[in-house]
Amino acid sequence: MSKHLESVLHDQTLMTAWLAENRVIPTVAEFQPGPGIQKLNLRFDLCKLREAVEEARQHVVEQGDGFSAIPITRRPGDRTVSDTDLIGRYYLRPDETYEEVARDEILDEFSFSEIFPQFKDTYFETVHTELTKRFPTGRMRVLLKAPLTCNSWHRDPEPRVHIPIITNPGSLFVVNHHVTHLPADGSVYFTDTRGYHTALNGGEQPRVHLVAALPQKI
User: Fold this and answer.
1) Where are the beta strands (DSSP E) in the chain?
2) Has this prediction a pTM greater than 0.70?
3) Which CATH architecture has domain 32-213?
4) Is the pLDDT of residue 178 over 90?
């Protein structure tokens, strides 16, 4: 048998095996832990989270490209919110050179320690209090992602926790080579965004997450 024919038969055998596998599995709509994405024991009341988001809609800051945010914490006494406060330093490899570049300014995450006055005595403050009991917490924001949009493939200086509030099975989180759906059921998810990652919303409704940075000493 010629090497060419042997190669053809080998590929045919592989293709037959692949086509026989069932790829329509229910776990694509479930959380699958993996390197850089884990679930904490902490849980919050989903109904109260959704009510808090609805009451805070007037404070949404549009950023474009399907991304908007509601800043929940600030530097003590700071009444302004800059674009840098909403984004902050990140790194990415933007083109075919594969060279990494830094974007935006470095933020002192430890300084974002105060709840904006409009969110005092709301469920956001309850969440913030419970998080800070467990670990240092920096910027806390509600992040809204429009349907059929995707974030850049980048890494951050610090990891984060995500609390999905409104989601759909097409909303996925990717850290390095691990991808999974984060259901909105009150769970709190650790996402090690120090690794390259992205979030995408492949569904037909907006994705809403409460996200808190976990400051790292540099």
Assistant:
1) 37-43, 61-64, 67-71, 73-74, 90-92, 101-103, 114-115, 140-145, 149-150, 154-155, 160-166, 171-175, 178-181, 187-191, 197-201, 207-213
2) yes
3) Sandwich (2.60)
4) yes
